[in-house]
Amino acid sequence: MQKRLFITGGAGFIGSNCANFFLKKNFKVFIYDNIIRKSSIINFNNLKKNKNVITQKGDTKNYKKLENLILKFKPDLIINCAGQVAVTTSIIKPREDMESNVIGTFNILEILRLNNLKTKLIHLSTNKVYGDLENEKIYQNNKRYYLKKSFSGFDEKTNLNFHSPYGCSKGAADQYVIDYRRIYGLNTYNIRQSCIYGPLQYGIEDQGWVAWLILCAITDKKINIFGNGKQVRDILHVEDLTKLFYKIFLSKSRKIDGYYNCGGGLKNSISILELIDIIQSIKKNKVSIQFRPKRKSDQKIFISNNKKLLKTFNWKPNINKFDGINRLYNWILENKKNFKKFYK
Ligand SMILES: NC(=O)c1ccc[n+]([C@@H]2O[C@H](COP(=O)([O-])OP(=O)(O)OC[C@H]3O[C@@H](n4cnc5c(N)ncnc54)[C@H](O)[C@@H]3O)[C@@H](O)[C@H]2O)c1
Fold it and tell me: Which domain holds residue 269?
């Protein structure tokens, strides 16, 4: 029997990459997206052409509509990629952020609970649930922040500390997803992602920084660096992420707590200044930059410890940052015309 995947926010960056990956595994895929991110219409229209894809515009806040579609489609797996994604927007529009991230996710959980569905749910959470990590002793050199030598990444025992409306809304959803597994026995998997990057990503200044910086470089736009540019993240290529989701889908184990940190790990950690160096070496030209004040609630450094994922699903990232950045650079170059429609 053909397996069925329902993706909320399925026309976004991660959602459409999941769709393409699971289509290759012969899944039937349902894309549900409100297209609040304007560029998602490109992925939406491309996916629509595939006979194994059903597309529907809609919002996760609309309980009845979502419930009817899920009950009719009968998915084996739901991946929740929908939501408000930027810290900056959450500060300007906290209610919109809360409703999209909390109510949207809560609706999916309630649909599963009230209809007694055993469907697996993968929920896309974030490392922002750990806040600004201001109690860590953080050092710096001229290119990046770093922690002591023995540091092997932040694991799931790191204290939760919700900063910014985005941190609160993602944090609340994160906790609901974990608790619905604990209290109601739902089959939920909560993935606290670091920065994900890769093709089909239409980065903007507020979100998707790897793609945004590359786009600026390619289009000769001046790059704004908020803060000193030494902020570090462990970047994970979206192809590695979709492979993890497939492993989760195949996994039979139920004796797990269902929440995981997920990123590129130490080896794929990179600062903004280091990324700019890599971009300049690909472009074989200097890019122009200007420094701006630090943004609120911007972690100085986050690097995931992926050990729990390795132990539970035998998963680790494979694509190294140099290869991944090169690939994304080429993808943006090839798709420059699409970007023109959505960027001034
Ligand atoms: N990309 C990253 O680096 C990253 C890192 C950590 C967490 N995340 C989380 O992963 C998820 C997906 O991120 P992404 O990078 O693919 O973002 P994205 O903006 O490309 O995709 C989100 C999609 O959801 C849609 N959407 C938004 N609110 C919706 C709603 N209420 N109902 C239906 N559709 C809605 C948007 O139109 C968009 O197509 C988000 O929850 C985000 O917080 C992403």
Answer: 4-342
User: Catalytic residue among 130, 166, 176, 180, which?
Assistant: 166
37 in contact with ligand 1, CB cutoff 6 A: yes
Assess whether the C-beta atom of 101 lies below 6 angstroms from ligand 1.
Answer: no
Low-confidence ranges of the chain (pLDDT < 70): 344
Encode burial over 296-330: b for 16+ CB neighbours within 10 A, e otherwise.
ebebbbbbbbbbbbeebbebebebebeebbebbbe
Q: Is the CB of 225 under 6 A from ligand 1?
A: no
Strand partners, 32: 8, 56
**pLDDT tens for residues 192-210?**
999 999 999 999 999 999 9
CATH of the domain at 83: 3.40.50.720
Q: Look up 146 and say whether it is catalytic.
A: no
How many domains, in total, are found in the chain?
1
Centre of ligand 1 to C-alpha 25, Å, is 23
SS3 track for 39-88: CHHHHHHHHHCCCCEEEEECCCCCHHHHHHHHHHHCCCEEEECCCCCCHH
